[in-house]
Every structure is written in C-alpha cells, then in structure tokens.
Write a structure and sequence with these properties.
The chain has 135 residues and is mainly α. It has one domain. The chain has 6 helices and no strands. Helix 1 runs antiparallel to helix 6 and helix 4 crosses helix 6. The longest helix is centred in the last third of the chain and has 26 residues. 23% of the residues are buried.
Length: 135
C-alpha cells in the first residue's frame, strides 16, 4: 500500500498489555481459576514446580506483540468503535476459532475452550478499546 502509514502509540500498547494481565489475573484466578486448573489436569504439586518468572516474562512479551499487531491493524485513524470491533473480531474470529481447532484435536474439554476463548475475546476487545481511543 503506497502512502499507508502506521502510527503506534507505544504507551497505549504497554498499558493495554498490562490490562491483559489484570484481566488474566482475575479470569484465571478468582473467576475461573479452579475450573481451569482442573480442566488442564494440573495438580497443586505440578503448579508449585512451575517457573513463574519465566512464564510471566514470556507471556508479557507475547502480549506486547499482540498489542503491537492489533495497534498496526487498527490503522492510523482508530477510534473506540473500530478498536473494540477489531479486537472482538480478532479475539473471536481468529484466536478463539484457532483454539477451537487445536482443542478439538487435543481432545480438550468444551469447558476449557470457553474459558480460554472467552479470555481472548474479552482481552482483545478491551485492548482494542484502549488502542482505539489512545492515539
């Protein structure tokens, strides 16, 4: 595309990534945490052996990439409606459907799918809202 410019507000990208972690803390903590752990087949023992510093560091890096990508996708003149729409379409139309295919072949439960897909739908929509209004 000749003449197309992408404007990325890196502070908005960072803030929307932090928001994704806050939503994740609530989603996979008090809201669906016990069910998610059970559906994943984790035990208290296996969770205690996790390297949370490594997991959270890489997860935040990946979340930054998501936010950067969504910001670029929104274009140079985003707004709240387009941000939320694009976020919802990405979270539901791309991420959740991809998870669905993976979970079908992985024989994961429908309950687990709805927890993880729901998180993606909500998070991408909220990230899109922030990126849409915070030019």
């Amino acid at each position: 595309m000749e003449g197309a410019q992408i404007h990325i507000n890196f502070l908005a990208v960072f803030v929307s990534s932090i928001l994704a972690f806050v939503v994740g803390f609530l989603w996979y903590g008090p809201i669906f945490g016990k069910t998610w752990v059970k559906e994943m087949g984790f035990t208290e023992e296996s969770l205690k052996k996790s390297n949370y510093a490594l997991i959270f560091s890489f997860a935040f890096g990946l979340t930054l990439i998501i936010a950067l990508n969504l910001s670029a996708f929104l274009g140079s003149e985003p707004n709240l409606v387009w941000g939320m729409t694009a976020g919802a379409l990405a979270g539901i139309g791309w991420v959740s459907t991809s998870l669905g295919i993976t979970y079908l072949f992985g024989r994961k439960s429908l309950k687990l799918f709805f927890i993880d897909a729901g998180y993606s739908a909500v998070t991408y929509t909220l990230m899109g809202a922030i990126l849409g209004v915070w030019k």
